[in-house]
Amino acid sequence: MLPGMTWLVTGGAGYIGAHVVRALQEAAAHDQRLLPVVLDDLSSGHADFVPGDVPFVRASVVDTAAVRAALVEHAVTGVVHLAGFKYAGVSVQRPLHTYEQNVTGTAHLLEAMAEAGVDQVVFSSSAAVYGTPDVDVVTETTPPNPESPYGESKLVGEWLLRDQGVATGLRHTSLRYFNVVGSGSPDLYDSSPHNLFPLVLDALTAGRTPRVNGADYPTPDGTCVRDYVHVADLAVSHVAAARALADGRTLQRVYNLGSGDGLSVGQVMTTVAQVTGIDFTPEVAPRRPGDPARIVASGEAAARDLDWAMRHTPEQMVASAWEARRRAT
Question: What CATH number has the domain bearing residue 272?
């Protein structure tokens, strides 16, 4: 490994992190500054998601000493911080755990970075920081108003980066997005027990009828409306942000990675039935706490600065997720 030529991906054995790692590997073929190193405690990640030629450190971001050692040993120059507890609904029941993983973990990471002299970070934030906005399409200037401990913890994470930037010159940007779906490689799949796509595809695989959480929201079909973004598109923009920081370019403090229009859960269900060829009418379950009715974000700023684009149709999102799900069984 060349000295001073690596980016540490926290949570790099997870669904999104693994895609970012592979995108960094691809970019590093032309830019050696972007070679990835993975740090993950495997609480929700998978060791076999990490390519065999990528260094892997099994540790938690709340362990400052372990993170600092990884930064030094692998001559890390920047961090893509994806590690965290990311379930908005569950965070309402487990607020302390959520804050420990997402706020304390980020603080410990930043402490380790400062001690190791690593001064650039791309932070995986969330559109959950907006809560239920009073505009049809949120932009980076829409005031945050989180409605769950998860959304709150991500907003505090952004504040930590901001304040550390003032204190130490840390160079940073935070990427806000909501529902990440699909697969960029058939061997990488979303194994979350709470996300819509794996819940629906697991139900169909088991011969059960998928459920929607709430059908009485103030939306056209009564189901929640979200930005559904393909994980491979997301990975491209994480790498673009890392490269921009490595080039010394100034980025906005936050960017939305959004579609600008969104899809309802009902529309997703219809698309799943079409792509899989399994006809079903979803069962309606109660609303989940902490779930706003609609969050759709503009991606215009990220398109300008971070090579952001919605490169996949809803059908391609479902088809790639379905292929990865079937291969995982």
Answer: 3.90.25.10
Instruction: Tell me the three state secondary structure of residue 247.
Output: coil
Please identify which of the residues 87, 99, 130, 150 carries the catalytic annotation. Answer: 150
Tokens 């809560």 map to which residue?
131
Domain, as residue range, for 319? 181-226+259-296+304-328
Q: Which residue has 């990471």 as its token pair?
A: 109
Q: What is the band of 3 on the pLDDT scale with cuts at 50, 70, 90?
A: very low
8-state DSSP, 297: B
Are β-strands 171-176 and 254-256 bridged in parallel, bridged antiparallel, or unpaired? parallel
d(CA 237, CA 15) in angstroms, rounded, equals: 16
Q: Domain check: are 157 and 221 in the same one?
A: no
Is residue 119 domain-shared with residue 135, that is, in the same domain?
A: yes
156-180 pLDDT, tens digit per residue, is 999 999 999 999 999 999 999 988 9
Mean pLDDT of 76-82: 98
Q: Give the tokens for residue 214.
A: 């709430």
Same domain assignment for residues 112 and 213? no
Place of tokens 């994480």: 238
- Paired sense of beta strands 211-213 and 35-40, if any: unpaired
Domain presence at residue 1: no
Distance CA 296, CA 292 (A): 11
Per the structure, how many domains does the chain have?
Answer: 2
149 and 199 inside one domain: no
Indicate whether 85 and 198 sit together in one domain: no
Stretch 28-40: mean pLDDT = 96
H-helix or E-strand containing 88?
helix 88-93
Residues 159, 15, single domain; the answer is yes
In the block, which residue shows the tokens 């792509």?
A: 275
| Nearest to 304, CA basis, from 251, 235, 239 | 251
255 included as an active-site residue: no
Distance CA 239, CA 29 (A): 13
